[in-house]
Amino acid sequence: MYCILGIMDLTPDNRYSRHTSLPQIGEAGQARIRASHVLIVGLGGLGSPAALYLAAAGVGRLSLADFDTVEVSNLQRQVAHTTERVGQLKTTSARQACLDINPDCQIETLDYALDEEDLDSLVAHCTVVLDCTDNFPTRFALNAACVRARVPLVSGAAIRFDGQISVYDSRQSDSPCYRCLYSDTDNPVDSCAQAGILGPVVGMVGCVEAIEALKLISGIGNSLAGRLILFDGLAMEWNEIRLRKNPQCPVCGTDTTD
Question: 39-57 pLDDT, tens per residue?
Answer without folding.
Answer: 999 999 999 999 999 999 9
